[in-house]
Amino acid sequence: EFRGSIEKMGKGGNQNVVGAAAPELQGANAKKPLRSTHPEFEPLKMTRAEMKKHNTVSDAWMSIGNKVYDMSDWHEHPGGSVLFTHAGDDMTDTFNMFHPPGTVKMLKDFYIGDLIEDAAAVAKMTPEELQSKKEQAEFEKAYRNLRSQMKKAGLFEINYWYYAYKLVSQLLLVSASAYCASYPTALGFVTGAVLLGVFWQQSGWLCHDISHNQMAQQDGQPFSFWNRTLGLITGNLSQGFSVKWWKDKHNRHHAVPNVHGSGDGLNGDPDIDTMPLLAWSIKMAETGKENPTARFMISIQKFSYLPLLLIARLSWLQQGIQFAWNIKEDGIFNNTVKNKDLEKLQEASLQGSEKYIEQALLIAHHTWVILLCSNRPTFLSAFAFWFTAQAVCGFLLFVITSLGHNGLIVYEADERPDYWKLQVTTTRNISGNWFVHWLCGGLEYQVDHHLFPTMPRHSLPAAHELIVSFCAEHGIKYNEDNLFHGTWEVIKHLDVVAREFLIEFPAM
User: Fold this and answer.
1) Most CB contacts within 10 A, which of 357, 366, 373, 505?
2) Phi, psi of 336 (to 5 degrees)
3) pTM
4) Across the chain, what does the average pLDDT equal?
């Protein structure tokens, strides 16, 4: 899948290169560098400061280890726009955590040079700064070694019986919902609607696993056909979400959780783009200081948070349709952040037969849902059944995903820490009994999952013990709370943000 996308690269590449690349750079506006596939290629030598100047979609350099790659305008990246969250930055750990081992072989097509140490900058460092740099390098080496130990222990290997059980249980849930919907009683209504909502929620967790290549792989390599097929079934057909849209959005979230974007780049977390309805930081709230509606919503957000979760699924249904049919106009639910580069990337990512398959399966989803709800005796009862199921799913899905991150620290893009510390400090686990574990679909181990996103869900409990021990050894706070107290903490955080906003930006 990755190689096929490289071979049909669109705008990215050396089409505009003139002459051979010079060994030294002259800044972000220098000519496009030659890649290793060019006959006149000569590796560039650059400092991290130089690389950081190339931090946009159209001018995107990034490093893995000490090698630098030019990913400028590569719209066909299989994982979507997540690639550009690290434009101008190091992506060593993000790359390793997201990709199977064989992918590294494909990078040679993008290689342009190597990083060198900035001797002048090092000479200006204080002894304390030099010691901190040494300790950081040792810490990064330690958590990379931990990943290698987990692979040797078999924690990335799939138990297919586990996922067979999950797929069969999904069929039982939707069948039971349809059976209950046919009974014209209040009990049939409530039970059927709740079961349908839970079916959608659990389909979401399965689609999540599949989209992280947890479910279909062999010897560490993903089965692209089966991942795509199962993703379309559990995403588009089962839930009514465009799996391509969701995967693009979710991968960016994984790369930069709880990070405010800066400039024109794609270096921010799309999951905290919830204005004007909710503000997770003063910086977010400030974007609505001149908007009366936003000011009102922020002022009541501690009360509106839970009710908003009831309609959150409707937002994803709308955005999936907008993505699949390339609808640019705003709908009922909209994001505050608009980015032309992102629109181009998303449009380029869904073309040809893949686009028509996504559209057909979204239509099929709404068709089977209408047929199931039509088992109710009246149109009003059928609509109420549909809306109740939407509300149940929305609440159960988003109260869990929100608890995983919201109410924790939010970083600026240029101040985010290393991969491990970013994931651990912006993520929260959920403790509880066997039912909570089943309900959360693996995201009760949100911290562990964010650190190792391709690890199958059934291995997370074993990984959890190792990760907690590692964090304790290195003095890193590990966030964990139960479902009820954690939700209360999220609500208290919303209240704090609202109070500070109203004090700092009083109404005129």
Assistant:
1) 373
2) -70, -45
3) 0.89
4) 88
For residue 217, give the H/E element and its range.
Answer: strand 217-218
AA letter at 358: E
Task: With residue 307 as reference, give the H or E element that holds it.
Answer: helix 301-309
CA atoms of 104 and 451, how far apart (whole Å) = 19
**Under 8 Å between Cβ of 111 and 67:** yes
Predicted local distance difference test score (pLDDT) of residue 227: 83
Q: Tokens at residue 39, please?
A: 């006959």
Q: Angle, nearest 10°, between helix axes 352-373 and 312-324?
A: 140
CB neighbourhood size of 394 (10 A): 23
- pLDDT at position 217, please? 60
Check residue 342 and report its DSSP letter: H
| Whether residue 30 has pLDDT greater than 70 | no
Return left, alpha or beta for 329; rule: phi > 0 is left, psi -120 to 50 is alpha, else beta.
Answer: beta
Q: Which residue has the tokens 């109410």?
A: 407
Residue 222, pLDDT above cutoff 60: no
What is d(CA 260, CA 495) in angstroms, rounded to the nearest whole number? Answer: 20
Asked whether 399 and 309 are in contact (CB, 8 A), the reply is yes
| Beta carbons within 8 Å of 400's beta carbon, 6+ residues apart | 430, 439, 440, 441, 443, 444, 483
| C-alpha to C-alpha distance for 310 and 389, rounded to whole angstroms | 10
Q: What is the largest CA-CA distance in the chain?
A: 79
Q: Residues 494, 410: contact at Cβ < 8 Å?
A: no
Mean pLDDT value across residues 66-81: 90
Spatial CA neighbour of 447 closest among 258, 269, 222: 258
Supply φ then ψ for residue 286, to 5 degrees.
-60, -30
Name the amino acid, one letter, at 366: H
Q: Is residue 64 a contact partner of residue 91, using CB atoms and an 8 Å limit?
A: yes
Asked if residue 313 lies in contact with residue 200, where contact means CB atoms within 8 angstroms, the answer is yes
Q: How would DSSP label each residue in 225-273?
A: HHHHHHHHIIIIIHH---HHHHHHHHHHHHHSTTEE--TTSS-S-GGG-
State the pairing for strand pair 67-70/111-115: antiparallel
